[in-house]
Amino acid sequence: MTRSTGLAALVIAGWLSCALCPAGLAQHEDLHVLALNPAPAVTRRDMTAVDMVQLPRLDGVYLSNDGRVALVERVTTDWAADQNATSYWLWQEGQTELVWQADLDTADRVIVSPDGQQIAAEIAPEDSSNDEIYLRNLDRGELQRLTRHPTAVRSIAWSPDGVFIYYLASEARSDAERERRSRTHIVDPYYESTRRTHLWRVRVADGARQQVTQGDIHVRSYHLAANGAILVRVSAGTDPDATYQSELMVADGPSAPFRRVTNNNWPEGNARLSPDGLRVAYQARLGQDGLDYVQEKLVVLDLASGVTRVLAPDADWEVDGLAWLPGGQSLIIAVREGVRSGLMRVDVDAGSLAILSLEDRALADWSLADGTGEVLALFQTETSNGDLWHITPSGESQRLTTIGAAMVSAFNLPQQRRIEWSSHDGAAIEGFYFAPLTERSDVPPPLVVQIHGGPRSSDQFGQWKWSRFVPVLAAEGYAVLWVNYRGGTGYGDTFLRGMHGEYFAHADRDVLTGVDHLVASGLADPDRMIISGWSAGGHMTNRLITRTDRFAAAMSGAGAVDWASHHLTSDVRGARRLMFDAAVWDEGAYDQVFVPQSLLRDLHTVTTPTLIFAGEDDERVHPSQSIMLYQSLRNLGVETRLYLVPGEEHSFRTPSHRLFRLNAELDWYGRHIGLPDRDWLAPPDAAD
Fold first, then answer.
1. What ranges make up the beta strands (E) of 578-617?
2. Structure letter (DSSP) for residue 590
3. What residues have CB less than 8 Å from 666, skipping those under 6 apart?
4. What are the φ/ψ torsions at residue 33 (nearest 5 degrees)?
5. C-alpha pair distances (Å), 368 with each of 2, 343, 351
6. Total structural domains within the chain
C-alpha cells in the first residue's frame, strides 16, 4: 500500500438525527457502522459556530495492496474531553457500510498487510507514552503487542512479502545518560539533539528486531520497493534545518550495504523507489540551476546511469504527492492546479501526461494499491466535506460514499463562485466569492476577506476547514472573498516568484484589486469590509492595515511583523531563505533585506481596529510577533485586543479554543460594522 503526504447496524434515520442535532454530534459516537450512502437531510437550517467546529469528517485513507480493503480515518469532536477524536473505519469491496474499529481509537497510524488479512497499528501502551506496534487479524480478534522497543516507533510499513514490519525509531539514551538527565541534566539543549533516528524491522511471526541502518546518519524517511530494495532519506544532522542537506541512499535488501545515490543541495521530498528498484521518483523545488524558489517538480533518478530528469518542468501545476504504478513505467501524481487539485498519470520514459481526475474539487487524501494501481481518493467539494472515490490507472472513477454530502446537507450552504480580475499590473488573479445566504437587492452585503496561509498554497473548490467558517459567515449575512494572490502555488513558477526577493511586491495589491472588483460589481459594501487571515494570511493582514484604512476591522492570526526575528525564531527557515534570497545572519542582509520589508516600520500608519490571536506554544510563527503588533497598536491608540491561547501551537486544536476564536471573531466583526450585539455560543455540554 502506498499512501500520499477508519456491531450494530446503522439506521439511516439515526444518522440523520445525528447530522441534524448539534448535541448529538457533540458526543463521542457509539455508532458502529456508517452507511456508505446515507440519505440526505430532509430539512436544512443555518450553520452555527458550534456546528462548524464539531462537523465530523473523513480524514485519511489507507488502502491494501490488492485494493479490496481500506482503513478510513474519521474525525469527530468530543466536547466532554475537549478534544478531537480520530476513529478508524473498515471499508471492504462489495460492502455497503464502513465498520468502526473501536480498538484502534488510540492509534496514531494504521496499515493493512499486503495480503489484506492483518492490521498493524502504532499505539502507546497504558504504561507508556511511546508508541509500539500492535497487530490483529482483519476480522477482529484481539490486538497483540508485537514490539517492545526502548524508544517510540513511528512510520510503520509492511515489507512487500508481509513477513516484516519496518519502522523508524530514535536512539535510546544510555543508562548513564538517563541518570544524568534525571538528576542534573534536566533540560535538553535547544536544537542540539544528537539522538539519531534509524530504520528497524521486526519479524511478524516472533517479534525479533533488526536494526537496518547504522552509523552517523539520521534517517528522515524511507521507502520499500516490491523487489526488496530499500531507500532511505538521510541527513548528517538531526535539527530541522538539516533537512536541506538530506540525501538518498539505497540498499538491495536489509542486509546489503547502503550506497549514496544523490549529492545535491535540495531535499528530496516523498522519495519512492520503483517496484523493480531501478529508479527513484521524488519531488523538489528545482529551477534550471538547482534548488530555487519555484514549485515542487517531479524528479526521476535512474540508478544505473545516475541521470536525473525533471518531468514537466514548465507545468503550471505543482506536484503534491506521488506513487509508482505496478511495473515501474508510470507514476500517479497528485497535483495542485489553481483552484483545483487531483491526480495525473505520468509515463516516465515518454514524459507524457494524462489527467485522471482534476475537477472542481479539492483532493484531501489518497492511497494507491501497489498490486493493482487502483486509487482510493478523498475529495471535498462545495457540497461535501469529504467523500471517497475509486479511480483506476486509466482514469475510470466511481463515487463510493456520500457520507460527507449527507452530513453537510443538513445546513444551508453558500454557493462557491469562482471569480477573476486584473491586478495593478494587469496580471490575472483568481479567487472565490461567497454571497450571503440572504441577499438584499438594495444594499450590498458586508464583506469578510479571508487570506489563505502558506503562502505556498491556494484556495480551492471545497476545502472544508473550520477556521474558514464560510457557511457561518454567510448565514450571518456576510459575503466572503478568497484570493489566490501571487506567491501561491498552482499557477506556475512566474506566479509563485511574484513574491521572490520582495514579499509584498504584488500580493497585497492582488488582494486589494479583488476587493475593488467586488465593490465595483455591487457585491460588497465598501463601508463594511473586514480583512482577516492566519499565518501567511496574518502577514498579509498586517501588511494591508499599514497600507489602507478602508477596512472597518481586521483579524490577524499568527501573523509576523518583523521578518528578521521571525526568521530567527521559526522552526522553518529553508523555504523563507529561498524566498528572500538571504538569511538574517548573512553579511548586510539584516539592513538591506529584512528591515526594509518588516512591517514594524509602518505600524505607525495603522488606524484599523485589529483583533489578534496567537498560540502560546507556536514554533512556526513565534507569539512574540503578535505581541509586538499588539504593543505597537495599543501604544499608538489603535483599538486592539490580543488573545494568547495557552497550550496551542500554530493551528488551534482544542475544540473550546476553536469555538472561542469564532465567537470572538464574529463579535469583533459585528461590533465594527454596526451590527447588534450577539450572544457567544457555549460548547454543547456547557449549554445543557
1. 610-615
2. I
3. 49, 472, 476, 678
4. -135, 140
5. 5, 11, 21
6. 1
Q: What is the CATH number of the domain that holds 647?
A: 3.40.50.1820
Inter-residue contact 343 to 364 (CB < 8 Å): no
Three-state DSSP string of 40-60? CCCCCECCCHHHHHCCCEEEE
Task: Note the pLDDT of residue 463.
Answer: 86
Nearest Cα neighbor of 525 from 591, 585, 442, 411 is 442
- The amino acid at residue 471 is P
Instruction: Write out the residue range of the structural domain in which residue 447 sits.
Output: 416-687
The pLDDT-based confidence of 574 (bands split at 50, 70, 90) is: confident
What is d(CA 432, CA 416) in angstroms, rounded to the nearest whole number?
A: 6
* Phi, psi of 265, rounded to the nearest 5 degrees: -115, 30
CA distance 378 to 367: 9
Separation of alpha carbons 457 and 468, rounded Å: 15
Report yes or no: 286 and 294 within 8 Å, Cβ to Cβ.
yes
Instruction: Give the DSSP H/E element, type plus range, for residue 634.
Output: helix 624-635
User: How many angstroms separate the CA atoms of 657 and 651, rounded?
Assistant: 10
Q: Is residue 24 assigned to a domain?
A: no
Q: Which of 508, 544, 552 lies closest to 526, judged by CA? A: 552
SS3 label, residue 669: helix
Local structure of residue 552 (DSSP, 8 states): S
Phi, psi dihedral angles at 200 (to 5 degrees): -125, 170
Residue 1 is predicted with a pLDDT of: 57
Domain membership of residue 448 (yes or no) is yes
**Whole-structure pTM over 0.90, yes or no?**
yes
DSSP 390: E
Question: pLDDT digit string (tens) for 372-382?
Answer: 999 999 999 99
Residue entry with cell 458586508: 446
Query: What pLDDT does 7 receive?
Result: 28
3-class secondary-structure state, position 281: strand
Cα 449 to Cα 478: distance, rounded to the nearest angstrom? 10
Q: What is the pLDDT of residues 29-60, one digit of tens each?
A: 447 999 999 999 999 999 999 999 999 999 99
Q: Residue 90: count other Cβ atoms within 10 Å of its Cβ.
A: 23
Domain membership flag for residue 575: yes
Distances in Å between the alpha carbon of 346 and those of 373, 492, 583, 622?
A: 13, 18, 37, 41
Asked if residue 387 lies in contact with residue 399, where contact means CB atoms within 8 angstroms, the answer is: yes
Under 8 Å CB-to-CB from 221, ≥6 apart: which residues?
A: 155, 168, 232, 233, 271
In a domain, 621, yes or no: yes
Where residue 686 falls among pLDDT bands split at 50, 70, 90?
low
State the helix-helix crossing angle for 507-520 and 536-547, rounded to 10 degrees: 70
**Type of residue found at 25:** L
Distance of alpha carbon 568 from alpha carbon 190, whole angstroms: 13
User: Which grid cell sits at 568?
Assistant: 530567527
Summarised one tens digit per residue, pLDDT across range 526-556 is 999 999 999 999 999 999 999 999 999 999 9
DSSP secondary-structure letter at 513?
Answer: H
- What is the separation of C-alpha 157 from the centre of its chain, rounded to a whole number of angstroms? 21
In angstroms, how far is CA 111 from the centroid of its own chain?
20
Q: Which helix (H) or strand (E) holds 686?
A: helix 684-687
Among the listed residues 163, 83, 78, 157, the one whose alpha carbon sits nearest the alpha carbon of residue 122: 157
